Amino acid sequence: MTTQVKIKAQVTTVTQVLEWCEIDPKAIIIVEHLNHFLKTEQDRIEFLNEFESRQLWRDPKKSFKMVDLAKQIGSYHYPEKTLDELLEMDVKEALETLFREPINQGKLFRFKEHKANIRSLFAIKQQQPKIKLMGALLYV
Q1: Mean pLDDT score, 19-39
Q2: What distance in Å separates the CA atoms of residue 7 and residue 35, rounded to the nearest whole number?
């Protein structure tokens, strides 16, 4: 219980989460996922409490498990949408909602390069629910 109070008093930013977890801020993929899923202070506090209770600092696959934990905690920010709802969003927001992953400039470039569209990616995602954007683009 003391840990939770200590964490609550200290954590307000993703940068502070990185420091607490001893992750280099240059770990871009981890930073993108934490920023994407841990949108509120409550999310970040819950993340650190789980990080501590699961003793992830001891795990050799700490960075992978951190990304998975962030997804578990912050997925509620990206509820499932219908195709019509996705089509009304801007492309980046629609892709982030559909695939529940951060979409950076590189992924947007690949999306445009493949001449993909939300409608076709939605169909692929319906057939393969665990597929990520870059994998789905292979089918376009």
Answers
A1: 94
A2: 18
Long-range contacts of 96-103 (CB under 8 A, 24+ apart): 96/36, 98/122, 98/125, 99/125, 99/131, 99/132, 99/133, 99/136, 100/71, 100/75, 101/33, 101/36, 101/132, 101/133, 102/32, 102/33, 102/35, 102/36, 103/133
In this predicted model, what pLDDT tens digit does every residue of 55-104 receive, in sequence order? 998 999 999 999 999 999 999 999 999 999 999 999 999 999 999 999 99
Residues in the chain: 140
Computed from CA positions of residues 112, 117, 121, 122, in that sequence, does the dihedral angle turn out positive or negative? Answer: positive
List the chain domain ranges.
2-77, 83-139
CB 75 within 8 A of CB 101: no
- pLDDT tens track for 78-89: 999 999 999 999
3-state DSSP helix/strand/coil % of the chain, to nearest 5: 70, 0, 30
pLDDT interval class at 12 (50, 70, 90): confident
* Owner of token pair 């989460």: 17
* Cβ(33)–Cβ(100) below 8 Å: no
